[in-house]
Amino acid sequence: MNYMTSFKNDESGAVTVDWVVLTAAIVGIAIAVVTLVSGGVEDASGGINDELVVASNFGFSVEPTSSEWNGMSYWDYRGIAEQDYGAAGNGGATAGWIQTLASEDAPDGYNFDNGLFTGDPRSIVYTSNDGENYSINGEVVSIADFEGQVNPL
Fold first, then answer.
1. Considering only CA atoms, which of 137, 148, 142 is closest in space to residue 71?
2. Which of 52, 93, 95, 106 is deepest in the core (most CB within 10 A)?
3. Contacts from 83-88 at CB under 8 Å and sequence distance 24+?
4. Given this model, what pLDDT does residue 22 score?
């Protein structure tokens, strides 16, 4: 009988039950907080991503600085982007700098806005402002006569 009375009066197991209940409550509250906050964080990160996309497009127009093709190739511009602007290993930044640098060097009357599938898929291609000619690595080709395919850089 003493064993039963002692077992009935022993409360050491009750502390364990209290800790389990409290831990479950804390975990439940944490899950609820994460659920409530995640929507706002997702919206904020989406807004940040949108701003980064805009910034990576360099958001400014570049006026040509020369009147004829300067002989620079895609690989020349890529080297400058990677070495001088720290874009190595970041494809988006590299492409953005290539486009910016090539745009700055566009011959008068031309703009740089695309690449083409030609013999070299990374040719520097300028489109005439009137939309009638391509200047592909310095060679002017009528868009009507061009048999390749447009390839955005």
1. 137
2. 106
3. none
4. 93
8 Å CB contact between 87 and 97: yes
Beta-ladder partners of 134: 127, 141
Q: What is the C-alpha to C-alpha distance for residues 111 and 103, in angstroms, rounded to an integer?
A: 6
**Confidence at residue 21, expressed as pLDDT on a 0 to 100 scale:** 92
- Does residue 37 have a pLDDT over 70? yes
Share of the chain above pLDDT 70, in %: 70
Tokens (6 digits) for 50 = 């949108």
pTM score, whole prediction: 0.46
Determine the average pLDDT of the residues in 24-31: 95
The reply to whether 99 and 144 lie within a common domain is yes
Question: DSSP of 24-85, one letter per residue?
Answer: HHHHHHHHHHHHHHHHHHHHHHHHHHHHHHHHHTT-S------SS-----HHHHHHHHHHHS
Task: Tell me the residue range of the domain where 140 lies.
Answer: 74-151
**32 and 86 both lie in a single domain:** no
- Into how many domains does the chain fold? 2
52 and 86 assigned to the same domain: no
